[in-house]
Amino acid sequence: MRKQQKHEGPTGAIVSGTPVYGSPVIGSPVVTGSPAATAKLSSDLGTAAPEDDAPAATPTRELPSAPPLYEASAPPYAGSPPAAYASSVLHIDREAVAGPPAAKKPHIKLQNRKCQDIVFLILFIAFGIGFMIESSFGFNKGEPRRLVYGLDYLGNTCGDKKASVNLESFDVRYWQNPNQVYKSGVLSNPFNLGDARSICLQDCPIPNPTNLTWVCDYPQGPINLTMADWASRNYDYFDLLTPTQKNSSTNLTGPCYPVLFQSENFFWSCQLEASPSNETLKLWTDIGGVSINSGNVIVQVVQKALSEPTTVVKRYVADLGRAWPVLVVCGGIAPLLLSVTWLIVVRYFAGTITWLTVILLNIFMLLVTVFFYIKAGWIGKDAVLVVVGSGATNALSASTSEQNHLKIVAVIMTILVVVVVLITLVMLKRVVIAVAVIKVAGKAIGAIPSLIIYPIIPFIIVAVFLIYWVAALLYLASAGSVVQNTCNNSCAAYDLQLQAITENNCCGYSLHHSKNIAWAIVYHIFGMFWITQFINACCLTTIAGAIAAYYWARGETMELGWAPVLSSAKRVVHYSLGSMALGSLLVASIEMVRFIMEFIQKRLKLLEMAPGGCCLSILFCCAQCCLGCIEWTIKFINRNAYIVIATSGKGFCRAAGKATELIVTNILRVGAVNIIGDLILFLGKVCVSLACALFSFLMLDTHKYKDGHSQVSSPLFPVLFCWGIGYITAGIFFAVVEMAIDTILLSFCIDAEEHNGNAMFAPPLLTDTLSSHARCQEAAEAARVLKKQQRVASRK
Questions:
Q1: What's the pTM?
Q2: Which residue ranges traverse the bilayer (predicted)?
Q3: Fewer CB within 10 Å: N-end or C-end of the chain?
Q4: For all residues of the chain together, what is the average pLDDT?
Q5: Long-range contacts of 46-54 (CB under 8 A, 24+ apart)
Q6: pLDDT (tens digit, 9 = 90+) per residue, 492-538?
Q7: 3-state secondary structure of 257
């Protein structure tokens, strides 16, 4: 038998040197040539060899060997009728014409790659350097205690052991002069509450109805007491004062001030009651004290100061620092364990876990909504005792504004519950399709077990980054200069150092932020968006590279190498970091615009309440809706672009164009299946995040976070933070299945495009699912056309 010549054939037509049965590619090489070769082929196929006088078969070329990536462990025609296979081979051979066909590029380009989008990688590195600089500035200049505990009459932060006096255990602010508090509430008076004399105590003082008590300034000058002695005397050293100092104290100019009003610790500030008791007031007048102003103005001015939007935001941000164990458990460990468990279970019980996800989502949505109703005060003890237990019905010591915020969130959650229930009812018939697609993704994950463990790496990176980001945000928000206010000689106080009454140093202190700090905070927020999206992009592209290798190897694990995930990650780091930076920059920009729009809307809230303000509200809602659609579209295009980048090494723009072309071309074939699968996974992520929110509610409802140094002003912000971090964490792990589905479907489109509409490498389960879905669509379309024709005929 003469030696045959080897020629390259079209990509996908040959697997392990064997012709693919049923391949529609015209001109594919086949194994024939001489009568002996034909006889050997017939013998292999179990058919009779042609007689000697029969015309010899047309000489053709020998099969070339395909690249190792496409090799399969079994011939693609296994199980096909041998005669049919031979007929197909001879038919394709007769169709072959002179000249070798043009060779196609490999499906996963491993050689001749080059670095893409380098400019954006340089921009990202420069941005990262700036991010570190502004964070370092915050750590150097900031003091997070300022966000909550306030400043005393010396400009010290309550609870700061590094202050001019050691205030480590003195973290409650108390206003000493009730007349100054009253004066700050009079609209015609320019005096502000920030200028009223305040001091840091361990707890709010209690008036004595039988013996007048005092709160004196920190022991300084001639007062020879330590801070511990001062605290043990209940802040009272009136008996140590000189007659002049006592006379000054009865005039409410210090250094001691009477405790006349009952007060209560309200967010680490002592909230005075509207009027003093008759007993203490009589004790005060008996020693010749000046007249005391009282009334609801005192209560209102303190509540107003503690309920201002900036104060509330600072208090909410500070809650994150005090509730850090909750954030670690419910925002880190819980979503990690739930997500890994979900990935392991979906590998073996795809159908069960899909239905369980849908059911648990509705349950968790309902439970979280009930908890918000409890905290908002809309549900009493008897209504929820059998659901959440007696411990959840304890009243939350929050102000009216905090309760209003909880009520708003409760209403939003109610709307979301209704929407989720409706979506669940609509999706019931389509979940079967999602189950089949998830099963295919589960097989791919099972073939590459390292995909289950791999998300832990980006999870750790994201967790460390977010911890650093939150800490830097706390320090940035509290950075600035502590400056004494100007009172225009509207106050006077006794100075123990000078041993005289002075009008120069009696004003309060406030924290002043420069414009540079404001811009640094904006830069910091954008950094969170861009860096997290960059990490997410690298993670998605790595997963896509491993899954694509699985698809084009026909699931043959021997051809994937010992570490397909590591190989894919090396290609991403070596060639495609610039593309990751560009793709993540687009998403981060849209997210930042949405954040700024939301901030502007809150700043213009008063205008929305004015006549005609509804038009402004509608405008903001429309803008947010449009931006949300744009963000979803960009994320969808990015995800598919990352798949093309992982397989071909293209730049971001070219990859996005190619991915969009494939999706548009095959929208009817795989679009609905992709959307249904992604929707199920989205529900799974929401389910995990809601579980984290529920766990955080339960932890914050314990005694530890209701009083003492770990007390939180409201559970709202820690719960929402755990919800958001839980969703991000779940998204990292669920991205494995999500990208497996998207990569397999996009590879299916590439496969079909290269083989004239027939995907030669697709798993049978995927082919059957898509075919069944297509038949259902065709039947539904035919039924609609028939009904339309019947209506037209009935009119005639």
A1: 0.68
A2: 118-139, 324-346, 352-374, 408-432, 452-476, 521-552, 572-597, 679-700, 716-737
A3: C
A4: 75
A5: 46/82, 47/82, 47/83, 47/86
A6: 888 888 888 888 777 888 888 778 888 999 999 999 999 999 999 99
A7: strand
CA distance 638 to 537: 8
Bridge partners, 19 (sequence order): 14
Selection from 485, 501, 499, 497 nearest residue 251 by Cα:
501
Whole-angstrom CA distances from 451 to 345, 674, 678, 683, 734 are: 14, 20, 18, 21, 11
Supply φ then ψ for residue 433, to 5 degrees: -65, -45
Rounded to 10 degrees, the C-alpha dihedral 190/191/193/194 comes to 100
Burial (CB count <10 Å: 0-12, 13-18, 19+), residue 414: middle
Length of the chain equals 796
228-233: Cβ within 8 A, 24+ apart: 231/169, 231/170, 231/202
- Percent of the chain residues topping a pLDDT of 70: 75
Show the tokens assigned to 346. 């979906």
* Long-range contacts from 388-394, C-beta under 8 angstroms, 24+ separation: 391/701, 391/702, 392/697, 392/698, 392/701, 394/701, 394/706
Residue 336 burial by CB count (10 A; 0-12/13-18/19+): exposed, middle or buried? buried
Collect all residues with Cβ–Cβ distance below 8 Å to 144 and sequence separation of at least 6. 318, 321, 474, 475, 477, 478
pLDDT tens digit sequence for 569-593:
999 999 999 999 999 999 999 999 9
Tokens of 400: 């009216």
Rg (CA), the chain: 36
